[in-house]
């Protein structure tokens, strides 16, 4: 397919079953078998699953691990090894930056690349795929299109280890008959509201009057839905992403009602959070906690400090006061501590931003 007439050319690169693939690299004897990466606690969720596990039992990321074990008790269940994943991710992103000037990292296993102006985008991405395979032994899937939105949707088509190029016109033809939820960002609740309006397909959403959508969903959301229904997206590729906050959370295997035990966990979380922030040279001015009760009530509390900090001697007393002031009225399912309101230094560390860290405590 020719892309010469496109105003923009964007690629979305997504590593194939990244965490599971890293584990299979360490354990080649497990290749071809259903492998699930997840924690062992009763409230653990699936981090990722090999394609064999996905095909056999529909196991997917964020599924409760207990459900996965019921569906596929004979699968191989492995604990996550995030140090290895981060190390491998660094190699992948290094390959991208060596070949393309504008790269936006959006996770350990995916990134957007601005290929506008590159003589042969397809050849460039084929070279990148080959270099990643050579240096990590892992495969990736690539979507190339006219926008971030279309590139991301397209990368899913060729999984695993594929590369698909599609224009907006062809994407409308391909996805138009499908449900609106095929578009990233249109979730189940929105799909349900659209169905009540008689909007069953993506094509129908694109044809719906924009003003009517704005009336029903609000000006901003309605305009956004109208653009997504027509697969329009002008979001730029940004080399850095602003780090808005960093946090550490713990989901307990058994709900905790003892305040002293919660305080002990909070202190451990604070030490870990500040260690990470010092490593990234980040300091924040807003200190907060998050509490999820056993009835799934979520409570957040925060307090600002005059001078940005990553010192646990500063963060810990404030986090402790916030917890004690709230004094959870019911047993706690999840507890977390957060630091936000970073300064300009956040931009220099944004490319190394990690997913939120969740500590696992023995149950």
Order of helices and strands: EHEEHHEHEEHEHEHHHHHEHEEHEHE
Please report the distance between the alpha carbons of the first and last residues.
55 Å
Strand order in the largest sheet: 5-6-1-7-8
| CATH fold type of the largest domain | Dna Ligase, domain 1
Average pLDDT:
90
Description of the molecule:
The chain has 14 helices and 13 strands. The protein is of the alpha+beta class and 363 residues long. The protein has 4 domains: 97 residues, Reverse transcriptase/Diguanylate cyclase domain (Alpha-Beta Plaits, 2-Layer Sandwich); 60 residues, MutS, DNA mismatch repair protein, domain I; 57 residues, DNA polymerase, domain 1 (Orthogonal Bundle), CATH 1.10.150; 114 residues, Dna Ligase, domain 1, CATH 3.30.1490. The strands form 3 sheets. Strands 5-6-1-7-8 form a 5-stranded mixed sheet. Strands 11-10-12-9-13 form a 5-stranded mixed sheet, with helices on one face. The protein has a 3-stranded mixed sheet with strand order 3-2-4. A hairpin with a 7-residue loop joins strand 2 and strand 3. Helix 10 packs across helix 11. The protein is globular, with a radius of gyration of 22 Å.
Describe how the helices and strands are arranged.
Layout (H helix, E strand, L loop, with lengths): L9 E6 L2 H9 L8 E4 L7 E4 L1 H7 L7 H7 L4 E3 L3 H18 L3 E5 L2 E5 L6 H16 L3 E6 L2 H10 L5 E3 L2 H8 L12 H9 L5 H6 L2 H8 L1 H11 L15 E12 L2 H22 L3 E10 L4 E12 L2 H15 L5 E11 L3 H4 L7 E3 L4
Parallel strand pairs: 2-4, 7-8, 9-13
Antiparallel strand pairs: 1-6, 1-7, 2-3, 5-6, 9-12, 10-11, 10-12
């Amino acid at each position: 397919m020719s892309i010469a007439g496109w105003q923009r050319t964007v690629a979305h690169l997504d590593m194939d079953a990244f965490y599971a693939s890293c584990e299979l690299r360490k354990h080649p004897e497990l290749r071809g078998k259903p492998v699930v990466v997840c924690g062992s606690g009763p409230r653990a969720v699936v981090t990722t699953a090999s394609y064999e596990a996905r095909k056999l039992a529909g196991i997917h990321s964020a599924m409760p691990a207990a459900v996965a074990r019921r569906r596929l008790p004979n699968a191989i269940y492995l604990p996550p090894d995030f140090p290895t994943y981060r190390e491998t991710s660094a190699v992948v992103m290094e390959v991208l930056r060596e070949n393309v000037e504008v790269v936006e990292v959006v996770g350990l296993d995916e990134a957007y690349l601005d290929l506008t102006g590159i003589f042969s985008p397809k050849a460039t991405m084929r070279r990148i795929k080959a270099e990643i395979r050579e240096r990590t032994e892992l495969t990736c899937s690539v979507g190339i299109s006219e926008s971030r939105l279309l590139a991301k949707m397209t990368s899913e088509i060729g999984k695993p280890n594929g590369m698909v190029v599609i224009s907006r016109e062809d994407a409308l033809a391909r996805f138009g008959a499908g449900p609106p939820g095929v578009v990233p960002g249109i979730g189940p609740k929105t799909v349900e509201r659209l169905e009540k309006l008689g909007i069953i397909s993506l094509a129908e959403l694109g044809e719906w009057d924009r003003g009517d959508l704005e009336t029903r969903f609000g000006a901003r959301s309605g305009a956004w839905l109208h653009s997504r229904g027509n697969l329009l997206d002008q979001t730029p590729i940004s080399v850095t992403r602003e780090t808005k906050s960093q946090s550490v959370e713990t989901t307990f295997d058994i709900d905790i009602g003892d305040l002293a035990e919660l305080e002990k966990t909070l202190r451990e979380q604070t030490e870990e959070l500040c260690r990470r922030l010092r490593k990234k040279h980040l300091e924040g001015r807003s200190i907060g906690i998050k509490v999820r009760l056993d009835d799934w009530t979520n409570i957040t509390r925060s307090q600002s400090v005059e001078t940005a900090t990553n010192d646990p001697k500063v963060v810990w007393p404030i986090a402790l006061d916030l917890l004690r002031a709230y004094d959870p009225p019911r047993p706690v399912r999840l507890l977390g501590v957060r630091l936000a309101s970073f300064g300009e230094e956040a931009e220099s560390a944004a490319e190394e931003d990690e997913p939120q860290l969740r500590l696992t405590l023995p149950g």
